[in-house]
Amino acid sequence: MRLIKNGKILTMAGKIYEKGCVLIDGKKIAAIEQSIEETEEMEIIDVKGGWVMPGIIEAHCHVGITEEKKGIEGDDCNEITDPITPYLRAIDGINTLDAAFDDAVRAGITSIMVGPGSANVVGGQFVFMKTKGRVIDELIIKAPAAMKVAFGENPKRNYGGKEKMPGTRMAIAGLLREEIFKAKAYLKKKETAAQKKETFELDFRLEPWIPVLKKQIPLKAHVHRADDILTAIRIAKEFELNMTLDHCSEGYLIPEEVARSGFDAIVGPALTTRNKIEVQNVSFKTPGILHQSGVRIAITTDHPVIPIQYLPKCAGFAARDGLGIEEGLKAITIYPAEICGVADRLGSLEVGKDADIAVFNDNPMQTLTHTLYTFIDGEVVYSHEHVHTPKEICK
């Protein structure tokens, strides 16, 4: 058992302990109290006033599937040979030895949503996973966790120049509608065959749509411009699907429409150049405006667009520009856990949840703040003592 004591405990579940303790038993949180009696079998970790929080969560990134400094040899993010590839699985392209995983752990980021990029109209299946370990099958929390779809410039640029659809936004929407229409017909035939106890031949390319159609996982829609956001909403409503609006850069221009859709927004990256037409209006004000309109928000780096270790700082900029400190912290903990469908295990410090915990010497959204400890499944996977002395880190 491990006891974290003398911490400012931010549970993200409605309660804050200005000076409290968290008890870890195995891989789970066993207790959270102002004071917990110490016993001989406990490993005591005195954080001396550090901020104790749920492990930080990145709701949209390409860690391990777009490796750093490895060029085409390490880039498995986009299969740019076919605009419709729902059967591709992120778990088959992620290298857990990518240096970004260590960067994430050092920043207190304990779990991430990883998947294909936005070159295709349908890119494939995302996975929700933890950030420490070598065997991806042992890190998976949820797979598949979402189905990637993309609107706007990227599919147009990758296929329009090849004299192949899609070359327009109309074609993107048309191809997606056609694919979902086929998937619905396939599911109906499969269900009818099951009812009649008839033989049914499985279609590998359409099977991945079944959890989407049954609302077990959402569409994960790459959308920057307001018109693309509205098209994504239109199609999801037409086929009665769940969806997250990823990037949602111009969502602040249509906040009421986004709120009425009922879909969550995973906002970012904003700490980057405006290198495409569709991101000309990117702003750290977007999360605050959408939140004030009633939209649930998560912040994303879209790593490697922004290095993943700067996720807490991106939340800080959003907090400064209208989101606020409390909502900024929630946007990298409990909200992404809820949006990604893993809040039963992650996102808040509560008894029975995974002991994924991040400890900082101050507010992690501030630039001078250091990570003191990162715990994943109750194990210390990062300690500041490896790179700093306690005197340096805590003063």
UniProtKB/TrEMBL annotation:
Record-linked Gene3D superfamilies: Metal-dependent hydrolases, Urease, subunit C, domain 1
Source organism, top-level taxon: Bacteria
Any one GO molecular function term: hydrolase activity, acting on carbon-nitrogen (but not peptide) bonds
CDD domains on file: Met_dep_hydrolase_C
Xref: InterPro entries: Amidohydro-rel, Metal-dep_hydrolase_composite, Metal_Hydrolase, Metallo-dep_Hydrolase
Record domain Amidohydrolase-related: where: 284-381
PANTHER family: ALPHA-D-RIBOSE 1-METHYLPHOSPHONATE 5-TRIPHOSPHATE DIPHOSPHATASE
Designated name of the protein: Amidohydrolase
